[in-house]
Specification:
The chain is α/β, with parallel strands linked by helices. The chain has helices at about 35-45, 110-115, 180, 215-225, 250-255, and strands spanning about 5-15, 20-30, 50-65, 80-85, 105-110, 125-130, 140, 165-170, 175, 190-195, 215, 230-235, 260-265, 280, 290-295, 295-300. It is about 15% helix and about 30% strand.
Length: about 300
């Protein structure tokens, strides 16, 4: 079944005075036959408006378009569950960050050699990987930024595994994800995943160019204040990497100082609903390291 969104102008009049006007507003709707009265009620619920006296809908059209998430549209209940892959595959020589070395994947024990050690018909393979910690999709823990912060072994599992998730859809063409873009969302206790669509450039020269999206320092401060548990992004870095940008790395500094892990280089966020899923990005329990690749995934209704 298709999903639909209404595109419309609206004028909201409040019973205690004042009003609100929207132009070209887009809102998830349950079906293309929604009436103006039903759409008005959905808008009021979506925006959480109180003391509304009247809503006038004009210039309305309904388009077939995937839902972006809203208070008025529930995620349909289905039987079973679905696992959604959110990690890039790590391959020999993979370029994650331009100029940083890719992994070298080799054999430590080949199947042929192992046959000399075991009974006839028994063989094993043991691989070896030499890589830097910032490879593929990885998690940053506080010790990545701060010498006295918890490392991979010190961050508790309840910061990394089976977290209620929220996807923030970043409009195309928007680079800086700031406080105003995040303010409509309830992020407390959630893994907040910034879906920019930039993962489509992973492995290409464009991935690390100046137009890559990022989280601003102000946006990071809002996520800390609002109680986010983990923050992820499907871009090259959660901070601005343009050559002219200051080197403070405010998003890293703010989130990690608050004990909030960061997952970078996510992919596949377009496959997730806006809410109603669980997120996991747990690394090996390695002492003395601040970053490491993860198998990031989500569990959602099928």
């Amino acid at each position: 079944m298709g999903q639909y969104r209404a595109v419309f102008d609206a004028e909201v009049v409040f019973v205690n005075g004042g009003g609100l006007r929207t132009d070209g507003f887009r809102l998830d709707v349950p079906d293309p036959g929604i009436t103006d009265d039903e759409l008005a009620a959905l808008l009021v619920r979506h925006l959480g408006l109180l003391m509304v006296g009247e809503v006038r809908i004009t210039n309305r059209t309904v388009v077939e378009e995937p839902h972006k998430g809203g208070r008025g549209i529930a995620v349909p209940a289905t039987d079973g569950r679905r696992l959604v892959e959110l990690s890039h595959e790590i391959t020999d020589g993979l370029v994650t960050l331009p100029g940083w070395p890719g992994p070298r994947i080799t054999d430590w024990l080949t199947r042929e050699t192992s046959r000399q050690r075991y009974a006839p018909g028994v063989e094993f393979h043991v691989g070896r990987i030499d890589m830097i910690a910032n490879t593929g999709t990885y998690v940053d823990t506080p010790s990545h930024r701060f010498a006295d912060g918890p490392d991979l072994a010190g961050v508790p599992l309840d910061r990394l595994a089976d977290l209620p998730g929220l996807v923030v859809r970043v409009p195309a063409g928007i680079r800086a994800v700031d406080r105003l873009l995040l303010a409509p969302y309830e992020v407390a206790g959630r893994a907040v995943l910034l879906h920019t669509g930039w993962d489509t450039h992973f492995g290409t020269d464009r991935y690390a160019t100046e137009d890559a999206p990022f989280l601003t320092g102000d946006g990071a401060s809002w996520l800390v204040e609002a109680g986010a548990t983990l923050v992820g992004i499907d871009s090259v870095n959660i901070d601005d990497m343009t050559p002219g940008a200051p080197g403070e790395r405010p998003a890293h500094s703010t989130l990690l100082a608050a004990g909030i892990p960061i997952v970078e280089h996510l992919t596949g966020l377009s496959e997730l609903p806006s809410t109603g899923f669980r997120f996991t990005a747990a690394p090996p329990r390695v002492a003395g390291m601040g970053t490491f690749p993860v198998r990031a995934f989500a569990t959602t209704d099928a």
